[in-house]
């Protein structure tokens, strides 16, 4: 059984000073705690967030140009519909965050954990994910099209309707997750899946292989229907 390599945790100082819940449109935010940050709808250019613990608040609808976030913990933060294309995330932990509809296309995400987050309808097209864990997350409708997934683990997640078309997967594992109506299932070649989750993929795999599923008919039934003769 293939087991993905675990992600590294954020490296934060033992004690962090509180900082005003304000985020400048440019520059560096480093080594502090923020609570209740309200940056919804803001625009940020080349902002670096380093060694920060952020609790609550909103970045919903914000737009970022090539943001760099490293050693960051987010808890109960709203990132819905944020535009984070070409982001560089390293050693990031998100807990109970709302990432619905966020645009993380072409992002480079390394050593990250998403725990009990809503990542549904998010775009991770052509992103590179390395040592990433999604645990207890909603990922229905998420788009991993063309993404590179290496050492990625989906645990107790809802991936209904998610897209993996033209993705590449190395040491990817699914456990206790909903996998109904996936798109691009053939791109998951080599991934590890639990037997109880295989039923969700059965008809998709059959379609990818060009198999026709005959429901409710046995060979005996087929023969009996084809013979008009009555034998005694």
3D structure, described in words:
The chain is mainly beta and 232 residues long. It has two helices and ten strands. It has helices spanning 195-208, 219-226; strands at 26-38, 43-58, 63-65, 68-75, 88-95, 108-115, 128-135, 148-155, 168-175, 192-193. Strands 1, 2, 3, 4, 5, 6, 7, 8, 9 and 10 form a ten-stranded parallel sheet that branches. Mean pLDDT is 88; it is low at 227-232.
Mean pLDDT rating: 88
Distance between the termini: 55 Å
Let me know the largest β-sheet. 10 strands, parallel
User: Approximately how much helix is present in the residues?
Assistant: under 10%
Low-confidence stretches: 227-232
Relative strand content: 35-45%
Task: Give the C-alpha Rg.
Answer: 22 Å
Which structural category do the helix and sheet elements fall into? mainly beta
Helical stretch tally? 2
- What global shape is seen? elongated
Order of helices and strands: EEEEEEEEEEHH
E-strand count: 10
What's the arrangement of secondary structure elements?
Blueprint: E1 26-38, E2 43-58, E3 63-65, E4 68-75, E5 88-95, E6 108-115, E7 128-135, E8 148-155, E9 168-175, E10 192-193, H1 195-208, H2 219-226
Parallel strand pairs: 1-2, 2-3, 2-4, 4-5, 5-6, 6-7, 7-8, 8-9, 9-10
Can you give me a brief rundown of this structure?
With 232 residues, the protein is mostly beta strands.
What structural keywords apply?
mainly beta, ten-stranded parallel β-sheet, disordered C terminus
